[in-house]
Amino acid sequence: MNPETDNRLADDLLRPVLHTSRGFYIAVALFSSIVLCGAATWGYQIYYGIGVTGYNWPVFWAFHETNFVFWIGISHAGTLISAILRIVNATWRRPVTRCAEVITAFALMIGAMFPLIHLGRPWLAWWLIPYPSERGLWPNYRSPLVWDFFAINTYLTASLLFLILPALPDFALIRDRTTGWRKRVYSILSMGWHGTPKQWHRLESAMHIMALAIIPIAVSVHTIVSFDFSMALVPMWHSTIFGPYFVAGAIFSGIAALIIVMALLRKLLHLEAYLLPLHFQNLGKLMLTMSLLWGYFVFNERLTIWYGNSPHEMTVFWSTQTGKYAPLFWTMVLCNFVIPFPLLTIKRLRSITATVIASCGVVVGMWLERFLIIVPSLSRKAASFSWGSYTPRWPEIVIMVASFAGMALLYLLFSKLMPIISIWELKVGQHPQIKSAAKVQDAEAAGELV
Amino acid sequence: MTAIYGLYATPNSAQRAFDKLRAAGISEKEIVVMSSEPLEEYAFGSRDRQTIMPWIAVLGAATGLAVAYLLTSLTQRAWAINTGGMPIVSNYTNLIIMFELTMLGAVFATVLTLMKTARLPGRLPKFYDPEISRGKILVGVGRVDGSRVASVEAAFQSTGVETIKTVQ
To answer: How far apart are the first and last CA of chain A?
Structure first.
């Protein structure tokens, strides 16, 4: 690639970092105010107790836990997909990876907040941290919640490193193109990156090794989140299929979130030349695969329970098929399978708009799926005297909305810190045929080819 | 001693400069190349490829595994919890912690090796040029004594250099 192309590419991708529009400030103000409402609501919940929510015996896990599982699932969009595409050397991945990795980092942070939000006394959350305790209690390594602590923190640490390390060359680029405080900030962030062949090679080696490590970590995270449920003897929870079922669902919802984010970035940051219809088509195909896989898991899980005909499980089963939760269940099937299937299967329909519509449906459907795993089972436990119901009240709804606003806010702020598409990776990937052609032309000019 | 570098617009001209410098008797170790993208398809960009990073990652993983095993088994013995017929040291469940810390060990070892071998964080070299970020490729010689200055400059000039700069 020649310097002119280099500069155009860098100018395009650095524009959102170096220039701030009025729309940015308006969006930040809007999302900040929603996040503040959420924080105030959480304060209200802490002050008056968890009783202000719809939580009541026997349903003590509901919206907050649904959001926890949902956001951890969304986090699978990024680092996992990026790592897989990096390992299989999918060249089309280059504009997509950073958009995706950012989702992972922020979705994990937001998801990990929900167990704290659910705690009546969140200031005691540090009891989860393994330390020699004066209280005579040692965190129980047999508890799935402690497994969560280790898994989520491992994934978050690895994902942040996976996001930040390849950003060093881009930080160096901004350092060299700015002055004043920005130059000082990016000088620190770039850590003295200067782009020798040794640095490039070490960076690529490190990214490859980390990609190999991150794939099993990501799979383990959502498997462990599924253990929060499947380790309990609650109807329709105690299932061996839950691990892979959750992982498939997480990747499914993650891809959907990634497509929505990419479409928004494409429109708002004018990245039409970089986020191409091809990227949406390829991700759409991946989402279609996950939709089929998800359908396969749901069928397996439901068929096994129906065939087993255990009375406790059948009570929950029918409450989701024809009972109180049936509208939510069938909406989920509609959103996760019926709508995406034709939109993503028929090539003529698989446009950016159609992919985004399917993705919006999948995000809604997968949120419903988490809700339907948690609430109906707790409402209809084995002993019928412990049956109950759950209706959300405003605090958990406001907190949920605030979590979405929080995600948007973090993403917006991040787009001011770092180019949302990795510039150097895009340079490497763009027009390799031009590189080869230039190489031949230069060799001819130098008289090396006869 | 002075440092001399030239800025090139294309990797091909940078490669020719690299070859000319070698022909002028400058050793490969003395020649510095910097670019804003990896150029591993060129000879100058494919130097220094030998690394033990994967083995260090394996070592990090083994350390993580050992730490996790000790953390879980020793503490379960020290603060025994009797639950539902499970053994005091329940390795089945501890495997989850062991797996996570093994992978974390591998990740940390990889990052530390990257930092150490790529000399990060560090200061910018004295002849770093911001034009690199505008797509130029820097080819330079860090320590040139007076007798070799002319031959280095001649090598740059004969290979389509855009700018030659000298840093004392």
So the answer is: 25
